[in-house]
Amino acid sequence: MTRVALRGIRAHVIQFLLSVLAVALGVAFVAGTFSLRTMMSSTFSGIVERSTVGDAYVRGSQEIDSVAQDGTGLGAARNTIPASLTTSIQGIEGVRYAFPTISGPLVLVGADGTAVASGTSPTFGIALDPSDPTVKVVNGRIPHGPNEIGLDSGAMTSSRLAVGDHTKVILGGKLRDVEVVAHLSLGAPMAGATIVYVDVPTAMAAFAADGKVTTIAVYAEDGVSQTALVRRLAPLLSTTAAATAEVVTGDTARAETAASIEDALGFMQTFMLIFAGISLFVAAFIISNTFSMSVRQRMREFALLRAVGASPPQVFASILIQATVVGLAGSALGLLAGIGLVSLLRIAFLRFGLDLSGSIPLDASTIITSLAVGTLVSAAAAVLPGRRAALTPPVQAMHDTVVTGGRSLRRRALGGALLMGAGAVAVISAMARPTPHGPTMLGAGAAALVVGVLVLAPVIVARTLTVLAAGFVAAVKPLGRLARGNVTRNPRRTANTAGALMIGMVLVGAASVLAASATASTRSIIANESTADFIVQSATHDVPDAAIRGIASLDSVAATDVARNGRAGVTRAGATASPDDTMSVVGLPAAAFGRSLNVRVLSGSFEALAHGAVAVQESTATDHAWSVGTQIRLTPQNATAPPVTATIGAIIDSKSLGAPVILPESLYAQVVAPAQSAANTVFVTAAPGTTAAVLRADLVSIAKPYVVLAVLDNDQFAAKLAEQVTSLLVILYALLGLSIIIAILGIVNTLALSVIERTREIGLMRAVGLGRLQLAGILTIESVLTALFGTIIGLTLGVAVAAALPTVFASAGLTLLAIPWTQLAGMLALAVAVGVLAALWPAMRAARLPVLEAITSE
Amino acid sequence: MTSPSTVAVEQPRRAGGTSKVTASARGLVKTYGAGGTAVHALGGVDVDFAHGELTAIMGPSGSGKSTLMHCMAGLDTVTAGRVLIEGEDVGAMNQRQLTRLRRTRLGFIFQAYNLIPTLTAAENITLPLDIARRPVDRAHFTAVVTALGLQDRLDHRPRELSGGQQQRVACARALVAKPAVIFADEPTGNLDSKASGELLAFLRRSVDELDQTVVMVTHDPRAATYAHRVLFLDDGHLVRELTSPTQAAVLEALGRLGATTAGDDPGTGRTPAARPDAQPTPEPIAVGAP
Q: Looking at the partner chain, which of B75, B113, B173 has a beta carbon nearest the beta carbon of A760?
């Protein structure tokens, strides 16, 4: 039976080729994901190894939340420790060097006058102590003084500066002129991050003005082990007045960092594997279809095998063997393709400044997983057709034509209807009653609907396609009618083929609606709530103080309202804050309300803010059972600052202010330290009589030197926020693209196999005068109908489910439902194009069938 | 009739009568393969098919009868010789011209699998006209359908029809387009005797009453009796012809064919007949009007 199975594959190679291709694509995605993760993991841990080479690290003992980014620390932020500790540490026996790690965000202006922004990798400035052993001078000398900087290799490349050049940096909120005096190297590429070295006093002034740093790196004398070093340092720390510092070995610090990298990569991997899973699911459809059709075609062969004594399990096994071979071949191909894919990705990442080092890893687990997954999916997909083949009655061998029992679709109709009903109920109830379980119910309901539609699809094929085909039937006689007959005569097959496309289209439809709604919601929120004339924001999310002062001093500016973001513990007065109580807080001048912002007040009033009261968002107030007049306690993240008590003066509902608690400026300054605060948005109101053009020109003149600032009016502001959504959407489309491609392959596959199946019929039609172009026309119409069917059902479902989102996620800022009709129409046009494309090869093959052979074929 | 390769066919010698020739072949040779594995399906056949006649082509398996029909219908290319349909050289036609030929001037009836399963009987009947975008002559359609007894079956799909009914639908399809010649390849091969008889009677009637020309390949001696003329092929050559045959005459001719080939020496090809009353040598058969 094995021989029969294997010979069978050889004889019908082309039939199985497309299945192999489908598996290959799905497995390529899986293999690529694993490979990419391994590569990123080794790159980042390599960086960690090379950049954190200390033997011990002294750091804060408590983990906190911080908005400000210091750039180097991966992993939980901790409370800061006094930099002065360094001197005491240096005095301990066994310590060779001790350097405080002083770093922070920095903007470097490159040779072309624009800020160096290498995509996703940040730029930061680091203090360089002259005796630091980890950094080598390649060219020049160590920076000294506030106007000298050194650049690492990556920074030199991306800024195109050379030693001796003069440029500007924005450091600690101030723009300053500097000279590049050194090309430094850490010994390895830093994944595209731009690192600028400054001397210690400059860094301290900019990043550690309060004398506090995050870590102190300690290097041991020769012969002193890490643990020994830790032991010697421990007594010093226990006597520190603040008692908030701890010491860990270098190994521990590196391991912790590596662990948090792995966590982040794990998320990315899971996310991508979901899409890989979708692709494989779609590939399974194709394989199932292929085997269904090939089994049907070879019914007489199986009947013959049964007639000569093969048992049903033997026949089943032969099908499964073929599926396994297809799976293995596809997986092997997919593995190679996955490597190729990752190579391409690496090149793409390089463009964005992320330099992934090392060779592309192909470890045993990737190979085994890819092969196993591909083979299992293939085998699973062939089970049902195999069962049908195994149960062929031997007498079928005597029949000239294949008798295909019209298996009742009633069970599918029932099952599909039930699932869809359950799904619809879940979605509607999630919409009707907003509960914390809303999102989960929505998700489960959506999944049930999708599966239900897939089950129900064959039942609705006939009616839906009759409607869809009406245009063709009327326009192109008799081709339209012939095509319609062909797609409706085997509803399961058409539904399976279209189902693959449907899955991708549901996600695409839902994503499009989500994006359009998010954009529309944002626009309307901004339009409703922002009354400022202009908004200034920074690409680094923190507008420098000097810039703010410059703006405020303009004549054309009547008022400048700065919204600052920070974090603090917020509890009822008298309660101690735990880490769970930490939330975002926004500091605004009290007068901003009404001047720059128009926010809905539910109870209380904004005048209260002028007197030191705070405003709280409605959802937060409800969660904590607070109301106007409640006393709350604000606990700063910096352990040394005392908590502050305040009264709630207003309950508001604002979507543009993302934070739950809004504090007046003076209160904010007491609660959030400048080092942990970011001036996110500056609202500018024009002086009376100033035109918008004049004001914009003035603002731009202040902002331009800072290079990273953007001056926006309300429309542009809304557009900028919408951009983020659009870029996410593009990524989603790219990930779904693969499953759509596989689905298209499925259509090609079905069409090609059906041409083989209908050889005699095609011969007959050619014999009575059907031209080759007309034959191609029939196949093209079939293909277009199938593609349209899958697309329309998928988009409809996706849009319907997404329409529920604003109701469920209204509190998250999704207030409006916008359906991007033009985009959806574009998808339909794409479906037609896809249909035409998919029919090209099968139509060519069919047209080339010699009429005589076709008529006389078996 | 404006094909660039139109050649006027010379009217061959006749015994009497002036029937028009609808289709003819001159020196038809068809060889498959080459060298040692060459199969000579047709070894030089000259034949005319007169208008308004039902001609049957018979012969043992491998005699080349199906090949002859395929070549006449333009379904297969010829190795040498010429095929003319209504004066036009089929061999010189390209794919598009051949398609048009099949659409408008030829009709086909096969042994089985004649109908498109997704179309109704009526749609199957008008299929060639629909493909050619020619209007259906409703009066003719009704006449044909009524003559074939298919009035009640027009809305049925092929799987709802019996074998005989399916063949009759195929017949109707061939007739409704009013082609120049209808080629039928073993049309009664899958039918029982009653259905066979009905179909054959109708084919003969269509020739007599509707002025059709029908060329039928068959191995059934009874089918041959419905024909005006029976041509016998053996080993790629036209060896004999009978007009207005009886079943007995057909059986005898077939038997003689079998005897002649029994003494063949595979290495040297045909040997002269062993029996005294067998045909001495094959020669071109001229048109014989009944």
A: B113
Q: Does B130 touch chain A (CB under 8 A)?
A: yes
Distance set, CA B217 to CA A785, B23, B121, B188, B193 (Å): 41, 15, 25, 10, 17
Candidates A547, A551, A529; CA nearest to A595 is A529
Residues of B in contact with A477 (CB under 8 A): 130, 133
Most B CBs within 10 Å, among A768, A778, A848, to test the B interface: A768
Query: N- to C-terminal Cα distance for chain A?
Result: 23
Q: Are B72 and B238 in contact (CB under 8 A)?
A: no
| Residues in chain B within 8 Å Cβ distance of A764 | 108, 110, 113-116
Q: How many CB atoms lie within 10 A of CB A443?
A: 15
Best residue of B118, B125, B134, B160 to probe chain A, by most A CBs closer than 10 Å: B118
Residue among B75, B115, B128 whose CB faces A851 most closely: B75
- Token reading at B35: 């060298």
Structure tokens at A703: 């902002």
Q: Which residue has the tokens 């006393």?
A: A631
| Chain B: residue whose CA lies nearest to A847 | B95
Nearest-angstrom CA–CA distance, A148 and B251 = 115
**CA-to-CA dists, residue A853 to A762, A763, A857, B76, B251, angstroms:** 11, 8, 6, 9, 32
More confident residue, A350 or A780: A780
Q: Note whether B103 contacts A: Cβ–Cβ < 8 A.
A: yes
Out of A401, A478, A852, name the one closest to residue B130 (CB).
A478
Q: How far apart are CA A28 and CA A336, in angstroms?
A: 7
B65 touches chain A (CB under 8 A): no
Distance CA A558, CA A579 (A): 40
For residue A471, pLDDT beyond 80: yes
Tell me how far apart the alpha carbons of residues B57 and B215 are, in angstroms, rounded to a whole number. 7
pLDDT tens-digit series, residues A417-445: 888 888 888 888 877 776 777 777 888 88
ipTM over 0.85? The verdict is no
* B240-263 pLDDT tens trace: 898 988 888 888 888 887 665 444
The rounded distance, in Å, linking the Cα atoms of A593 and A589 is 8
Which are the contacts of A202, defined by CB distance < 8 A and separation ≥ 6?
A127, A145, A146, A171
Cβ of A401 under 8 Å from any chain B Cβ? Answer: yes
Query: Distance (Å) from the C-alpha of residue A485 to the closest C-alpha of chain B?
Result: 5
Which chain A positions have a beta carbon within 8 Å of B70's beta carbon?
852
Indicate if the pLDDT at residue B15 is higher than 80: no
Its pTM surpasses 0.80: no
Q: Which residues of B touch A401 (CB under 8 A)?
A: 113
Catalogue the E-assigned strands of A758-811.
Answer: none
Tell me, what's the pLDDT at A155?
A: 82
B252: tokens are: 């005898």
pLDDT of residue B267: 42
∠A437-A440-A444 over CA atoms, to 5°?
135
Compute the residue count for chain A.
858
CB A503 within 8 A of CB A284: no
Number of Cβ pairs closer than 8 Å across A and B? 74
Chain A closest CA to B32's CA: distance in Å? 14
B chain contacts of residue A847, beta-carbon cutoff 8 Å: none
Distance CA A582, CA A587 (A): 16
Could you tell me if A463 and A481 are in contact, meaning their C-beta atoms sit under 8 angstroms apart? no
The torsion angles phi and psi of A639, rounded to 5 degrees, stand at -60, -20
- How far apart are the C-alpha atoms of B89 and B82, rounded to whole Å? 7
Residue A95 in this model has a pLDDT that exceeds 60:
yes
DSSP letter (8 states) at residue A360: P
For A485, the closest of B108, B119, B131 (CB atoms) is B119
Give the pLDDT band of residue A233 (cuts 50, 70, 90): confident
